[in-house]
Amino acid sequence: MAAGRHKRSIVWKPQPKQVAFMRRCEDEALYGGAADSGKSDALVIEALRQVDVPHYRGLIVRKTYPQLSELIDKTMQYYRPAFPKARYNASSHVWTFPSGAKIYFGSMFRTQDKYNYQGKAFDFIGVDELTHFTWEEYSYLMSRNRPTGPGTVVYMQARRIREAEQNDPMLKGRVIQGVADPAIFNESQGESIAQMQEKYPYFVTWRPGDHTRIAGKMQLHYRLAFDAEGRPMFQVFDTCRHFIRTIPNLVYDESNVEDIDTTQEDHIYDECRYVLMENPISPRQVRKEVVLRDDPLDMDAHRSPIRVTRV
User: Fold this and answer.
1) Does residue 189 fall inside a structural domain?
2) Range of the domain at 282
3) CA nearest neighbour of 197 among 27, 30, 55, 60
């Protein structure tokens, strides 16, 4: 019973798996499961966590706007009973709460639709049916996950990371660097993704990878070449599932036969090229002897080995 003798009703009660998901404190959390396993419910409820903060902004995304209808129906079921004064704007696809906090609903039908979110920041981003999105689309959404003001969870999580960087002897004074696609340095439409990620809360310094495609392809060939004992220089763990899934399926471009067909799922291949081009090597030299089957004059004893290159 409440102070005014009004009963409080339970709008939603989480299942054990939903509890485990919502207790995660990492910057990213993935919730998998079969249909009707509670993933979408957990997503729309998790978006409510900070609606008491006036400047809080949340975003829930599906691939297309029609697919959002089910999620919006869920918010009608949960948000209105929990926050009777909250209002939903059907034309803008946004819930506004009494504090001023807002939860938006968006889509990304085409990859170029990602620019609809350029310059925007969201404290929380929920992606429903993640497998419908490409890595490029998802990573761009990640770059929009920035604090909109003090007091949100994004600030608290980032503050813990920075504290560790200042106190951990293995991290103190070090700069986190990475090699990335040169496309993230594009400033033609404003601040580049690379510049954004150098700032709070990421603090990652990127440098552009060498985008020389043929040379990068050959670096991969050189490292996959076997030595005399049948061992390559490049080995892949069985946990690298997407590498194993995509790399063997790559084919050459029909019009540019020396290069990979870029219409395929080649993101991991590109990542490998950038990393390998950071330390390019020469092709492995393999010595091979030519043995004569019929050698009545014993010429093989005086024959010098022939040096060949195998890549």
Assistant:
1) no
2) 213-309
3) 27
Q: Which of 156, 178, 201 is the last residue of a domain?
A: 156
Helix (H) or strand (E) run with residue 205 in it: strand 205-208
Q: Is the pLDDT of residue 42 over 80?
A: yes
What one-letter code names the amino acid at 202? Y
Q: Is residue 39 part of a domain?
A: yes
Of the candidates 147, 146, 112, 105, which has an alpha carbon nearest to the alpha carbon of residue 128? 105
- Phi, psi (5° rounding) for residue 182? -55, -20
What sign for the dihedral angle of Cα 242, 43, 132, 262? Answer: negative
Query: Is residue 146 domain-shared with residue 275, that is, in the same domain?
Result: no
Q: Which is higher by pLDDT, 244 or 165? A: 244
Assessment of whether the complete model's pTM goes beyond 0.70: no
The set of residues, in sequence order, having a beta carbon less than 8 Å from that of 3 and lying 6+ positions away, is none
Taking the CB of residue 139, how many other CB atoms lie within 10 A of it? Answer: 16
Task: Examine residue 163 and state whether it is found in any structural domain, yes or no.
Answer: no
With beta carbons less than 8 A apart as the criterion, state whether 88 and 21 touch.
Answer: no
CB 12 within 8 A of CB 80: no
Total domains in the chain come to: 2
Per-residue model confidence (pLDDT) at position 160: 41
Min mean pLDDT across 43-47, 288-292, 294-298 is at 288-292
